[in-house]
Amino acid sequence: MLSIGLNWLYIILTAFCIGYGIAHLVEKKLHYRLRGMDSILMAGLIAVTVYAEVFSLFYKVGRAANILLLLSCAGVAGVLHGPMRRSLESWWKETGAGKKAVLLMLFLLWAYFSSRGYMAYDSDLYHAQSIRWIEEYGVVPGLGNLHERFAYNSAAFAINALYSMKWLVGQSLHTASGFFALLLSGTVLELGRTWKEKKLRLADYAMIGAVYYLVTIWDEVTAPSSDYLIMCTVFFLVIKWLLCLERDSKGAREGLVPYALLCVTGVYALTLKLTAGLILLLVIKPAAGLIRKKRWREILLYLGLGLLVCVPWMARTVVISGWLLYPFPALDLFSVDWKMPADLIEVDAAQIKTWGRALYNASLVNVPMREWFPGWFSGTLSAMEKLLIFGDGVSILLFIVYALISLIKKKRENRDILLVLATVIGSYVFWQYSAPILRYGYAYVLLVDMLMAGVILQKLRRQQILYGLICLYGGYKLVMMANYIRSNYLVDAYIWQQDYGTYELTACDLEGMTIYLPVSGDRTGYAFFPSVPTMPEIELRGETLQDGFRHAQ
Q1: Does pTM top 0.90 for this prediction?
Q2: Tens of pLDDT along 161-211?
């Protein structure tokens, strides 16, 4: 816990400094003030992640990357120390003693959860090794040929590598999942106002969904999986979007700037996990407004920001796999000697899909949904998860009715809500049809249910129905949390975070290079490097690992 707490203080320091610099530029150039400390921190996290990805293209992400980051923070603090100090003082005065106490409690709780718990299977399969490659080399041409899962190039691995502090403490910390959960927890604290007002906004329903998600993953966030970062980011984006819509509905017109900036956050979500791409349907709102008003310079600015976020990620994917997007071999733009074979990519993509559908055989990838869905639904989901998925089906039907009524009655005021609903439903349908492992799409599953319930209950003016259910479920989860803490308090993780798993590996020779393979199973962990589940059919491109790999001819 102690190592995590200190690590998070460092993340807060750097993310706040960089985020505040971005907020200052936004206010100066776009005349919009970022609302809330959480928004500033998210802006900083996005920028720092992009920085780590850019740095990895040229050098390993370790001591030098952190020194340069600290120098950048010092530069921002030096130039903006006055307004930065006033902003912090204002936040401190405006935050009541009760909220400060809750924030401190959340900090300690998430540090406890992040220090120990369930390490996701994929983390010891390839996440740990992906992060170590970034720590040791930055990026290596054809790394996907060594193990195809390395080509799943998530920006989550870059930010984990930047803040892992292996070079400083001798252990690779993996705290980003817990920190994103902590950040989202701070965002949903605004739910506290509902108990006074006895009224739920649509954003509050999204926050309730986020709370459900957070209390579901507390025993998993020790893993550096991209799933937790992407789900927290999607919740954050939708919540902030709905809050903007609420302010607009009350006459506090803030223009298109916040929506355009949130779309940049949507691009960031895509770099965390490519399957989040449909969240960018939200871009319709700011794009339509900017085009209608012919604000071409702003359009170019936002397009530039989006490219700034995604181009380093795409560049890393090209270097690692030879393809612009992985695993989508249809988009064939580059002729490089390290390009991964298209047929192997198709098999890998099929394995992910069939595993998610509980078919466990890549050859069954084209089985119709009507055939695999019943077995997936009955065999892989808990009772509560079945209820959520059933609710999604009902919500989609209700959305169609709601959309038709809005269209027939020409209710233009419903357009913004319809866009949000269409976006989360589209994201859910894509997840459901592709690789429906729940941790890949929990945010979409919950947002479809909660937002459609919010629309209906607001129309019926029966929102108080939720209060009793929330209290009952909250009490149940508090008991579960207490039991979890009690059952894990003896785990020796109060100083150092629980490390990656350890496995029995054997050393093998590959063209003079030592490579480690598991004696049994397919997980390798972090300690032995480089390690892969099976011996690949590759050859070295040069004399060192830095030169990369290509598929054996």
Answers
A1: yes
A2: 999 999 999 999 999 999 999 999 999 998 877 767 777 889 999 999 999
Bridge-partner residues for 549, per DSSP?
540
pLDDT 10s digits, 64-112: 999 999 999 999 999 999 999 999 999 999 999 999 999 999 999 999 9
Length of the chain: 553
| Average pLDDT rounded to a whole number, residues 491-501 | 93
Would you say residue 542 has pLDDT above 70? yes
548 Rama sector, left if φ>0, alpha if ψ -120 to 50, beta otherwise:
left
Question: Within its chain, how far is the Cα of 243 from the centroid?
Answer: 20
Whether pLDDT at 487 is above 90: no
Residue 468, judged by CB atoms within 10 A of its CB (0-12, 13-18, 19+), counts as exposed
Q: Say if CB 547 and CB 513 are below 8 A apart.
A: no
| CB-CB neighbours of 417 under 10 Å | 20
Do 5 and 495 contact (CB within 8 A), yes or no?
A: no
Task: Write out 187-226 in H/E/C secondary structure.
Answer: HHHHHHHHHHHCCCCHHHHHHHHHHHHHCCCCCCCCCCCH
Between CA 384 and CA 386 the distance in angstroms is 5
